[in-house]
Write a structure and sequence with these properties.
By secondary structure, this protein is mainly β. The protein is built from no helices and eleven strands. The protein is elongated, with a radius of gyration of 14 Å.
Length: 118
């Protein structure tokens, strides 16, 4: 599985960005696509995730500001980020979790930098 992300950049606080991540290769029929982020000196954390059926999960810190969506035909996941805050600054990683039977395998994109200026 290969993941290619785009859409990061520099934005002022209060602005918006949209991240995209296209997956190719051995995507299972049962999978969850999502975004994680890692700020300097902090552990990687889940931002948002979405199942193939459209069920979503968000970190409390982004609820009401970020929206995750996906296009199953294109194996692409999106993250619309609005009302960005300085503390959203991080490297954002696309993730695909392939479920095969009773176990799962994680695949990670290379990361895209999001910088929010205050």
């Amino acid at each position: 599985v290969q993941l290619q992300a785009s859409g990061g950049g520099l934005v002022q606080a209060g602005g918006s960005l949209r991240l995209s991540c296209a997956a190719s290769g051995g995507i299972s029929r049962s999978n969850v696509m999502g975004w994680y982020r890692q700020a300097p000196a902090k552990p990687r954390e889940l931002v948002a995730a979405i199942t193939r059926g459209g069920s979503t999960d968000y970190a409390d810190s982004v609820k009401g500001r970020f929206t995750i969506s996906r296009d199953n035909a294109k194996n692409t996941v999106y993250l619309q980020m609005n009302s960005l805050k300085f503390e959203d600054t991080a490297v954002y990683y696309c993730n695909v979790k392939n479920y095969i039977g009773s176990y799962s395998v994680d695949y990670w994109g290379p990361g895209t930098q999001v910088t929010v200026s205050s």
